[in-house]
């Protein structure tokens, strides 16, 4: 079941990122202005945030398997729409709907936590999140390779078919999980504000990951534009290889989850945030030949993905240590808050690249983990262990 959860979350969340390395050809084909090309990714993330706030909480109210099935069919239809349009407005609306339906991944993750034993919950969540992060990172090279061979439309057709097939597979394989409920939908939504006010660990972990995911989005929204530009002159297949190397950063997720189970969240968080700073500092400090610059970017991508992965799993372990009857709402809030950081990062990245080039992107990306470290410095020693994170 853990393997099924991991593969499912990876395939679902990949839908958010297929367009990330294709914003150049998509913006040309649909007539989107280069300065606004970041909207292709930003609107998908905004749709995801909306779904996290208004759909994921239903996991505490409705039968989970059915909710996942409906969300995935919605995503498949949106992907199909994106594949057949060359109109900018229609494509952007489809991108929003892709994000909205892909929140099924965040109904699957609490499902996995619910089925796991408390003493191994962090490790289980780490494995599932490895699948999710592998989906995020593999989406970029897969979309680049498919686009190189068949055009950018093809990846959306392929994903629509895969997502629809996954919907029926999960409906057949997942056990039923019907929460006790006891609330109406609007009471459920109102309770989320109360949870946010009364759960300081949620606010703190969301702040850390919002900054890290903002940095992640800045980097990966713009790095393909830099790699295919005049300095590097790399093809879409080359971009795919570059993105594939960055996937290795996701392998730290189970390690981070295991350390969280051992009560070592504070040190893991410090290392994760520091890796975020290092990832942007390296290309800012090292300038040499084309080959050396490319090697530095590869290293930076791995380091950044390691930091984001470790911090994400550590945060989710903290959230899933809280009461099970509010787990979907807490996870929805956590993911929504940090995806807001991602949406800000992708929109800022596209604008900074158009206005100030790659150097402006690097300075923007560096600001995010620096802010996170400043917030982390205010965390009192011993707080993490006191709350079981």
TrEMBL record:
CDD domains: MFS_NepI_like. The chain crosses the membrane at residues 37-55, 67-84, 90-113, 125-143, 149-170, 206-227, 239-257, 269-288, 294-313, 333-354, 360-378. It comes from the Bacteria. Residues 1-382 form the Major facilitator superfamily (MFS) profile domain. Keywords: Membrane, Transmembrane, Transmembrane helix. InterPro entries: MFS, MFS_dom, MFS_trans_sf. GO terms for molecular function: transmembrane transporter activity. PANTHER family: MAJOR FACILITATOR SUPERFAMILY (MFS) PROFILE DOMAIN-CONTAINING PROTEIN (PTHR42910:SF1), TRANSPORTER SCO4007-RELATED (PTHR42910). This is MFS transporter. It comes from Duganella flavida. The lineage of its organism: Bacteria, Pseudomonadati, Pseudomonadota, Betaproteobacteria, Burkholderiales.
């Amino acid at each position: 079941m853990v393997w099924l959860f991991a593969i499912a979350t990876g395939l679902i969340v990949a839908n958010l990122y297929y367009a990330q390395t294709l914003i150049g050809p998509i913006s040309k084909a649909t007539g989107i202005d280069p300065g606004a090309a970041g909207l292709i990714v930003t609107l998908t993330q905004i749709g995801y945030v909306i779904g996290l706030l208004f759909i994921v909480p239903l996991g505490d109210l409705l039968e989970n398997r059915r909710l996942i099935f409906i969300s995935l069919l919605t995503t498949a239809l949106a992907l199909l729409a994106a594949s057949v349009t060359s109109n900018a407005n229609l494509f952007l609306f489809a991108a929003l709907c892709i994000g909205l339906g892909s929140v099924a991944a965040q109904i699957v993750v609490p499902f996995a936590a619910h089925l796991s034993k408390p003493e191994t919950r962090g490790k289980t969540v780490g494995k599932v999140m490895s699948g999710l992060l592998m989906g995020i990172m593999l989406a970029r090279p897969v979309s680049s390779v498919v686009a190189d061979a068949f055009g950018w439309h093809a990846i959306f057709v392929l994903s629509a078919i895969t997502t629809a097939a996954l919907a029926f597979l999960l409906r057949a394989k997942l056990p039923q999980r019907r929460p006790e409920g006891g609330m109406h939908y609007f009471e459920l939504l109102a309770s989320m504000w109360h949870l946010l006010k009364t759960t300081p660990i949620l606010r703190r972990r969301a702040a850390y990951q919002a900054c890290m995911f903002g940095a992640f989005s800045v980097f990966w929204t713009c790095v393909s534009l830099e790699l295919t530009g005049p300095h590097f002159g790399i093809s879409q297949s080359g971009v795919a290889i570059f993105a594939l190397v960055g996937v290795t950063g996701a392998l730290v997720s189970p390690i981070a989850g295991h350390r969280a189970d051992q009560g070592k969240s504070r040190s893991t968080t410090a290392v994760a945030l520091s890796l975020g700073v290092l990832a942007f500092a390296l290309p800012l400090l090292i300038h040499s030949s084309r080959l050396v610059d490319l090697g530095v970017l590869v290293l930076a991508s791995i380091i950044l993905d390691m930091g984001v992965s470790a911090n994400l799993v550590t945060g989710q372990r903290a959230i899933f240590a809280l009461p099970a009857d509010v787990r979907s709402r807490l996870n929805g809030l956590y993911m929504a808050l940090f995806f807001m950081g991602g949406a800000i990062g992708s929109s800022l990245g596209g604008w900074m690249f158009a206005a100030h080039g790659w150097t402006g992107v690097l300075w923007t990306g560096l600001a995010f983990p620096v802010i996170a470290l400043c917030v982390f410095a205010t965390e009192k020693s011993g707080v993490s262990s006191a709350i079981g994170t």
